[in-house]
Amino acid sequence: MNIMFINPYAGSMRYGMQLRPYYLAKKWVKIGHQVTIVAATYAHVRTHQPNPSGGIAEEEEDGIRYVWLPTMEYEGNGLKRVINMMQFSWALLRLRKQLAERYQPDVVVASSPHPFSIFGAEKIARQTGAKLVFEVRDLWPLTLIELGHKSPWHPFIMLMQYAENYAYRKADKVVSLLPKADRYMILHGMEPHKFTYLPNGIDVDEWQQVLEGGVPELHRETIARYKAEGRFLLAYTGSHGLADSLHHLVAAADELRDQPVGFLCVGHGPEKPALEQLAVERGLDNVAFLPPVSKAALLELLTQMDVLYIGWKREEMYRFGVSPNKLFDYMMAAKPVIHAIEAGNDPVAASGCGITIPPEDPQAIAQAISTLRAMSGKERAEMGMRGREYVLAEHNLEQLAARFLADM
Asked: Which residues form the Glycosyltransferase subfamily 4-like N-terminal domain (predicted)?
C-alpha cells in the first residue's frame, strides 16, 4: 500500500522532532508499505532543517521518502509563522495533481498541528481514490482559544475553525492522540464511527539498542557529583516552556533544599533562562540545568535516575486527555514517575507506576519526592516495572502503527 503522510512539521533522526510521522512510517515500511512524508522545509520544532534547491524536493531516510515543500523561516508565534502555514498549505493545494500522479497514494493522512493542509490532502485523495485520514495532535483552534486566550471571532481563528470542521466532515477516519477528543469533534461535524484513539508510543527497537557511554560529559559529571553527595536523583527532560510548569519544580527544590535530593532539568526552551535565574536568586545548589541530549543518550540518562517528573499547568483544555512522548519514555525506563496533572486521562495512575498530584503545587511535588525516597529500592523498582509493562502493552509503536491502518 502507498501511504502519503502530510505533516508540515514532520522530522526524522537526521532533523529532529516531530518524530511521530517518522516512527509510524518506519513501522509501515518494515511490513512492506511504501511511505511518502510531505513536510515543510522549515519548522521551528526541528533541530536541523532540510536544504532543498526549490520546488518539490525529495530525499530518503530509513526507507521513507521525504518530500519537502518550500516555506519561509520564522521565530515565535507571529505573522511569519502564519505565513509559513499558508505557504505549505497553498503549495500542497497547488501541487496536488503532481503529487497525486507521482506518488499514487492509497491512503492520505493529513496531520495537524494546524488543519489547513486538509484542503490539498482531500483533493489528492479524491484524485487517486485514496482513503482520507485526519490525524489530530492538538485541537486547533480550541487550543488557541482556551490556552492562548484568542477570540473565537478573530478572522484567523474562524478560518482555522472552518478548516477543522471541513476535515471532520470529509475524512473517512479521524485519528486522535487524545482519548476523549471525540466529544469535541462530534460537535464540529464528525460522525462518531470515524473516531479512533491512537496515542503516542515507544519504539521498542530503540530501547534494545541503547549503549552505555552516550551521555555527554557534562551530564555524566553532574550525575556523578550528585551521587557522590548521596543525593536522590530526580530528572525532568524536554521542553522548558510555560506549559511545562517548571517554576513549580524549582519551588519544590527550594522546599527540599536541606534534603539530599538532586534535580536535573535537561532540555531547552523559552523559559529556561528565567528558571535558571530563579534558581540563582533562591541560592539553590540542588538544581542543575543541562543542555538537551540525543535520543539514545536520553534513554541511557533516564535509567540512571531514581525518579522522573512531568508537570502541566491547570488548564480546562486537558479535559480531552494528553499523550506526552516523554511520559512513555519515562515509563519505559522503569522508573517511578511523579505526574502533576488534572486531565481526562492519566497513564501514571492507570498503570500504578508513580504518584499523581495536583498541578502547580510545589508542596505536593516535594511531598511526593519524600514519599518515594522513603520507599525501599525494591518498592521503587516494582513501581517502575509496572510502568514499563503498561507502556509495552498499550503504547508499543508496532501495534499502534497496525491499528492506524486498520480498515483501510
From this structure: 16-201
